[in-house]
Write a structure and sequence with these properties.
Helix 7 crosses helix 8. Strands 7-6-5-4-3-2-1-8 form an eight-stranded parallel beta sheet. It is globular. The protein has nine helices and eight strands. The protein has about 250 residues and is of the alpha/beta class. Helix 7 links the parallel strand 6 and strand 7. The longest helix has 25 residues.
Length: about 250
């Protein structure tokens, strides 16, 4: 179904919220003496009409956590020039769907997923060629790591590989056709000092860059800790609630 005209009140609200977040990012970057990182606005549970408003306000990078929702939005908004970032935990059986629209996946945390994504990109290239469509670019892959000390990825709610697996995963991703090793991603543990957590992530990033020096991206920082992430050197911030407001009720 096509989008209706944006609600003027909602458009003003999003403009104000986005301006406030951009001001925070600019101030943090100025304090850290560095360039501003990319802003990925996380729009999970919010309608495609909000994404259209944000695109008109200059947002080019959109994050989603669930494939079903992301695929529907990407299809509805294909007239817009947007880069879709998949940032949620990803099952291998969803790889083929995700590569149809995603520019990046920020939650690559295990070898079977790397294999599945590589095969999915190959299949997608074949599908596009058969349909007379242009080829897609390599899928940008951020390796996600847990920063909880002693955490077991099998039981950690936020997912992520163990830091000790960094080199192994990086080598596998870099060697897989159709994938581009972008860098690393992590979420600061609940109740922990985000600055210390992001410092640990930068150490992991160095191990990944030892495999591929071009894999310098660092996806870190959300609404509550974006200043600490900017100070630590994050290249991508994943901001949701501070731009879009309270999450709507999930039906």
């Amino acid at each position: 179904m096509a989008d209706v005209s944006p609600d003027p009140a909602r458009a003003r609200e999003l403009e104000e919220r986005l301006r406030a977040v951009r001001t925070r990012i600019s101030s943090a970057a100025l304090s850290a003496g560095r360039d501003e990182p990319a802003l990925v606005v996380v729009t999970k549970y919010f309608p495609a009409s909000d994404v259209r408003i944000l695109a008109a306000l200059g947002v080019t990078d959109v994050g989603e956590n669930r494939d079903q929702e992301a695929a529907a939005k990407a299809a509805e908004l294909q007239d817009l020039d947007l880069a879709w970032h998949f940032i949620g935990q990803l099952q291998t059986n969803k790889a083929r769907s995700v590569v149809r629209y995603a520019h990046s996946v920020h939650s690559v945390d295990r070898l079977p997923l790397i294999t599945a994504l590589g095969k999915a990109v190959t299949a997608e290239q074949e599908r596009r060629a058969a349909a007379g469509m242009g080829a897609r670019g390599d899928l940008h892959c951020f390796l996600q790591f847990t920063l909880d000390a002693g955490a077991d990825p099998a039981s950690a709610g936020r997912g992520g590989a163990l830091p000790g697996d960094a080199a192994h995963l990086a080598e596998a991703c870099a060697a897989t056709e159709g994938l581009r090793l972008a860098g690393v991603m992590a979420v600061a543990p609940l109740g922990a000092d985000p600055a210390g957590a992001f410092e640990r992530l930068l150490s992991i990033s160095a191990e990944v860059r030892a495999v591929d020096p071009a894999a310098s991206a660092v996806s870190a920082g959300m609404s509550a800790d974006l200043e600490e992430a900017v100070a630590a050197g994050a290249t991508h911030l994943r901001i949701g609630s501070d731009v879009l407001g309270p999450r709507p009720a999930v039906r």
